[in-house]
Amino acid sequence: MGNEKKIITAPITANVWKVLVKEGSEVSQGDTIAILESMKMEIPVESPYSGKISKLYIQEGGSVVEGEPIAELE
């Protein structure tokens, strides 16, 4: 009950342009947690869950591969 971890994954392979949350941040379903950049387009990443960010796997200026974990919520 209630204490399972949820993983948010990258929707595409892209560069990490902005990270809008930090570990410990409370987020609601639909909140934008990061903005990725691919082919000069900004792609917002929204949290599909509500909860607290327990782990961030990305940093600004880094890159992600489609399906790679971005953040973990509890």
What is the secondary structure topology, with strand pairs?
Elements: E1 6-9, E2 14-19, E3 26-27, E4 32-38, E5 41-46, E6 51-56, E7 63-64, E8 69-73
Antiparallel strand pairs: 1-8, 2-4, 2-7, 3-6, 4-5, 6-8
What report would you give on this structure?
By secondary structure, the protein is mainly β. It has a single domain, classed as OB fold (Dihydrolipoamide Acetyltransferase, E2P) (Beta Barrel), CATH 2.40.50.100. Helices cover 0% and strands 51% of the residues. The protein has no helices and eight strands. It has strands at 6-9, 14-19, 26-27, 32-38, 41-46, 51-56, 63-64, 69-73. Strands 1-8-6-3 form a four-stranded antiparallel β-sheet, with no helix packed on it. Strands 5-4-2-7 form a four-stranded antiparallel β-sheet, with no helix packed on it. A hairpin with a 2-residue loop joins strand 4 and strand 5 (41-46). The chain is globular and about 35 Å long. The N and C termini lie close together (12 Å). The mean pLDDT is 95.
Structure, briefly:
With 74 residues, the protein is mostly beta strands.
The CATH class name reads Mainly Beta
SS element count, helices: 0
Reported for the largest beta sheet, the result is: 4 strands, antiparallel
**Strand neighbour order, sheet with most strands:** 1-8-6-3
Low-confidence stretches: none
Q: What is the general shape?
A: globular
Quickly give the CATH architecture. Answer: Beta Barrel
Strand content: over 45%
The first-to-last residue Cα distance is: 12 Å
Overall number of domains: 1
* CATH domain fold name: OB fold (Dihydrolipoamide Acetyltransferase, E2P)
